[in-house]
Every structure is written in C-alpha cells, then in structure tokens.
What we know:
Elements: E1 3-9, H1 13-24, E2 31-34, H2 50-53, H3 58-61, H4 66-71, E3 74-77, E4 82-86, E5 91-94, E6 99-107, E7 126-128, H5 132-141, E8 147-151, H6 155-166, E9 170-175, H7 187-199, E10 203-206, E11 212-216, E12 219-224, E13 231-232, E14 235-238
Parallel strand pairs: 1-2, 1-6, 2-3, 7-14, 8-9, 8-14, 9-10
Antiparallel strand pairs: 4-5, 5-6, 11-12, 12-13
Amino acid sequence: MTRYDVLIVGAGQAGAQTAASLRQHGFAGSIAIVGEEPWAPYDRPPLSKEYLLGAKSFEQMLFRSAERWRELDVVILTGRRIVAVDSVAHTATDADGLEIGYGHLVWATGGAPRRLPCLGSDAAGVHAIRNRDDVDRLLAELPDARRVVVIGACYIGLEAAAALVKLGKRVVLVEALDRVLARVCGEELSRFYEQEHRNQGVDVRLGAAVASIDTAEGRACGVRPPPCRSFRAHAWCARR
Length: 240
C-alpha cells in the first residue's frame, strides 16, 4: 500500500492550491492529489463560460502542466474515486478497493449538482454543469438544439444562459425565487444582472417552479411548471 504524508482528495482548485501552498511554505513531505476524473487538476469556473463558448481550450484551464507538478514533487492520481476513509488506520479506499495510506488527509471534493426530484429529470437531453464531461456532452447535443431551458438563476445558470445565447440558442432562464442570484447578493445587484441578461436576449422567468420535464421518446422536450404552462425546449442545464 502506497502512503503519502499528505493525501488531498479532490482535484479542483482547492486541492491544487493546497498542494502548491504546502510546497510554497516549505513542506518537504510527500503529497498526492487524488481525483475521480481522468485529468490533472483544472479550473472549473470557465466550463460554463469560455469553455462552453469555445473561447478557451481545456489545456488552458489546467492549473499546472504535468512537468510543473513533477517539479513540485506532487503525485497526481487520476481516475480514482475515494469511497471510504478509515481515520484510525489512516487509509483511504477507492471504488476498486485499493487503499492509500496517509499521514494527513485533506478533503477537497467540492459539491455535486442538485438534481430535480421530478418526473423526467433523468431523461436524455437533461444536463448539469459540474465537470468537463458534463459540458462535452452538452456541446455534442447543441447543434441539434434551437431552444434551451436553463433551470436556476445563480452564477452557473446565468453564465450558461449568456453563453448559450451567444451560441445562437433561444434561452429561457427559469428561477423559482423572485429574483436572480437571490441567495448570494442584494436586490439591486440582482435586478442589474436580470436586466443585463434580458438585454442580451435571455427570456428570464422568475417565480417559476418546475413540476416536471416533458419527454418524447425518452428525450427531454420541455419543462413544465405548475399548473399547466410548458416551456418548450430541447435540453436544459441545472445548477450545481
């Protein structure tokens, strides 16, 4: 069993910066970053902006090159999902049953997309934005989509809506609350961003809860709020 003085679970910004900061502050012990994706740590915020628009390549989103990680003497373990931690034995076990020993454990996995608990939410054509694969799947379907519904008017939803409009799609942005960004900023700033998106052609609908996802032959074709109105679409994106 391989053992590291510091094992960082999560290959996002928090995990990458933790490893770099340890080296910058003189830590000389062994460090490993383990992530479930097959790539080295990369910057995720551009996924719903520049990467979705095709303005930034995936390589430009990598925090550091493989050579730089080697120079920092940080081991990058890709494609390994940690499913159990034994805090007494100081071991972490991945989905294949392989154990990794550690002196100190840093848990930096971030969050996961919140899926809607409604009929049709698991249909084909329903997307979330969390990692590169999510956006690649969305991009693969966009050429066949004319209309898109984005559910959730927080940062990722707003960014995705703006990008999709620039890509020539008719976008309806649905938010259950009475203003965009309601959980993270004041009303004046909310109204500013709402108007900016409306000016760019986003159809912003506030106070609009989602009752179900309409489907046709197993594929999402619309979003239905209570009681009976339907936002017709080919696909939609859910917030994290």
